[in-house]
Sequence to fold (207 residues):
Amino acid sequence: MDSHRLFKCRVLLVEDDPLVLETTAAVVRSFGFSVRTAEDGFVALQILREVLPDIILSDLRMPGMSGFELLSIVRRRFPHIPTIAISGEYILASMPLGLLVDHFFQKGGYTPEQLLAKIKELIADSPIRPHLGKHAKVPLWIPRSDTAYIVVTCAECLRSSSIANDTVTAEVQETECIACGALIRFLVDSSVLKLLEQKAKILPARK
Ligand SMILES: [Zn+2]
Fold:
């Protein structure tokens, strides 16, 4: 057992459903890990400003800042932190999820043992992660919203600002952070949102 080595493992858990959040947190605490929780990506970023976890477990579809966007920012700003997505969404093979996360678990489709084994595996690998330089080029991945503007978050200073939706195309775009001047590259993926909406119509009941 190498659980002693991982005893102080700090996990950041991001999930908007309070019940799922609490049950998942209880599972992770039962591993002997310390857990901080956030109900969406914005809250998660606030926590990341204070203290960096050893691993992040995140839902994908959340109000406020989605997991897609949060994990894009983490990949660029904190590439050494391993990430796991846990979601009930149907994930297409064509969705570039592998660029965003190290592993994907279908909600309800894994055992605590499988989760523990994956966390241990990813944390054991994490010393080599800073050298994964290709992730620096991953753009923010923002599902398009129905509102008149979208929100982008700077991977350098972690501040968010809004951009008019009518200037947004499907291509990777660039804008300057109003707070620190850093270049923000982002991709508004309307097909992702469309897919999620269709899925929600087919399965209106919440799991
Ligand atoms: Zn900035």
